[in-house]
Design goal:
- It is built from five helices and six strands, in the order ααββαααββββ.
- It is an alpha+beta fold.
- The protein has a two-stranded antiparallel ribbon with strand order 1-2.
- A hairpin with a 5-residue loop joins strand 5 and strand 6.
- It is globular.
């Protein structure tokens, strides 16, 4: 598990690398689909740019483009189409088949250097403390900062805030890992607040269709 969320600056590097391939494969588009751009980037045939100026806030994207980002990392950021489409996740499986079934590759390949965490991996990284009760006795906390008390939203760290969430204040979302004292037992930041995180978990949806699970809460979630 990464210790912090993927930043917009890191995703922007990927978006710049992948954009020419995207528009080559989508010649009808002048502006990229929001699944690729997320809500914080504007990607058109001429350029890739950030909405706003905070490169260190958490990134936002669709699952298939996160899978391409993971493939790209796995291959050492090679700028070739195959490096985005294969390696950890085979993007050729992310299509409707002749039986109108959408059955994408469910989990990462065993050779993967990076992957989207499973739901179990995410839960353990957020809540499991191998020494919760002392003397090596492990247990799960209720919240991802080694407490059983809800984290305080809507306040910046210097005001006693505990998670990167507060829709009613223009300062949010803050940069990732701004709440330096709020970490999981494994040292992970922003498992509450920032952006919710994708997992590999396939959730049945409409007939022949599945969606991926998400964990954590977003900066807009102040409850």
């Amino acid at each position: 598990m990464a210790k912090r969320e993927l930043t917009l600056g890191e995703y922007l590097e990927f978006a710049i690398a992948y954009a020419p391939i995207y528009f080559q494969n989508h010649p009808e588009d002048f502006i990229a689909d929001i699944a690729f751009s997320g809500v914080y980037l504007l990607i058109d045939t001429g350029q890739v740019r950030l909405r706003g100026s905070n490169y260190d806030r958490a990134a936002h994207m669709g699952w298939e483009y996160l899978a391409r980002y993971i493939n790209w990392l796995h291959h050492g950021k090679v700028i070739e189409e195959w490096a985005f489409e294969t390696g950890v996740y085979d993007l050729s499986t992310f299509i409707w088949d002749e039986n109108e079934e959408w059955m994408p590759q469910p989990v990462h390949t065993i050779e993967a250097r990076y992957w989207v965490p499973t739901q179990s991996e995410w839960n353990k990284a957020a809540y499991w403390d191998p020494n919760k009760f002392g003397s090596g006795d492990g247990g799960y906390w209720l919240y991802p900062n080694r407490t059983d008390t809800p984290l305080l939203p809507c306040l910046i760290p210097s005001e006693g805030g505990q998670r990167n969430a507060g829709e009613d204040r223009s300062v949010f979302p803050l940069s990732v890992a701004s709440y330096v004292d709020q970490k999981s037992p494994w040292g992970l930041y922003d498992l509450a607040g920032g952006e919710s995180e994708w997992t590999e978990k396939l959730i049945p949806g409409l007939p022949g269709f599945h969606i991926r699970g998400r964990m954590g809460t977003e900066w807009r979630d102040t409850f």
